[in-house]
Amino acid sequence: MAATDSTSAQFPAESAADGSWKRQNSAFRHTVEAGGEFPPEAGRYHLWVSLACPWAHRTIIVRKLKGLEHALSLSVVDPIRDERGWRFTTGAGHGPDPIRDFKFLSEAYRATDPDFDARVTVPTLWDRESGQIVNNESAELIVMLDGAFAELAEEPGPQLYPEDLREAIDEVNDFVYDHINDGVYKCGFAASQGAYDRAYAHLFDGLDELERRLAGQRYLAGDRLTLADVRAFTTLVRFDAVYHGHFKCNRQRLADFEHLWAYARDLYQTPGFGDTVDFDHIKRHYYVTHGQLNPSGIVPQGPLLDWGAPHGREDLAPAGPFGE
């Protein structure tokens, strides 16, 4: 295929004229905060997630790390999504909607905004009291879970977005989102050779930078686990299982990076991380849902990776400012 040739996009509405992937903006951006329209209250809110989706996975991890399972209910959609969007069915690891008996998550979107006509996404936070979606932006939701929701926890969990590290966390997050979190999608959903080539180079430039960074530092934003690590992990844990092959991110596997692979295992072995990973949902979602990329719908058996192998990162000291 010549560099200028194009193919049909998996999501045409989010494909630019040059074939590059342009993710849509999240539609609902209200904030849960004390004294606001949506105050933190145990039992008031519900979180719809997919175990396959890395953006939803962020909220699953933070909800568990912060001890909010009793205060914030959660339910899981079917990993297989068709042209009607995320659906509620009964199967391994997922079940019917417990809130309104919705059959599709799109019903909650239309109940909130009858004119909504974009792609329906997870995670989605629903307010039982007002009967509407509060927020569907994962980056904002995990900050709320670490902040406003924290007062609802039975026991205090780790502070994942501390004041003294926020500047460093934000800098890392901006870099990781652009190069890696969205970077794998820019490769996978590229609709032209040129767009793919640019995305591929950008992705691996980012991974190379994290590999260098993590050679002497246990966590991305300092000597403590933070939201930056949560956001990086949900892409890294899916890398070899789906992004390497399905999204053509194949310069090398995660397992071929000495420090990134050890870092990912370190997080995986941390309670709240590996015990929230469902590789069956992950692989079935990507390989079955993206018919433009995998028309056969065949789900690969591999890879075989030892996520429980010792990582040897316990004694690493923090490095300097990000990018230095």
From TrEMBL:
Listed Polar residues bias regions: 1-10
Q: Which domain of life is it from?
A: Bacteria
Recorded E.C. number(s)?
1.8.-.-
Q: In what residue span(s) does the GST C-terminal domain sit?
A: 162-286
Residues holding glutathione: W86, R119, V120, T121, V122, E137, S138
Q: Name one Pfam family in it.
A: GST_N_2
The main enzyme category here is oxidoreductase
Question: Which CDD domains does the record match to this protein?
Answer: GST_C_Omega_like (cd03190)
Kindly list the GO CC terms recorded for this protein. cytoplasm
InterPro entries cross-referenced by the UniProt entry: Glutathione-S-Trfase_C-like, Glutathione-S-Trfase_C_sf, Glutathione_S-Trfase, Glutathione_S-Trfase_N, GST_Omega-like_C, GST_Omega/GSH, Thioredoxin-like_sf
**Coiled-coil intervals in this record?**
none
- Mind listing the GO molecular function terms for this protein? glutathione transferase activity; oxidoreductase activity
**Record carries keyword Oxidoreductase:** yes
Q: Where along the chain is the active site annotated?
A: C53, Y185
> Has UniProt tagged this entry with the keyword Oxidoreductase?
yes
Question: Could you say which residues are annotated as the site Lowers pKa of active site Cys?
Answer: Y243, Y286
Q: What keywords does the record list, in alphabetical order?
A: Oxidoreductase
Residues of the region (Disordered) are 1-22
What name has this protein been given in UniProt?
Glutathionyl-hydroquinone reductase YqjG
This chain's source organism reads: Engelhardtia mirabilis
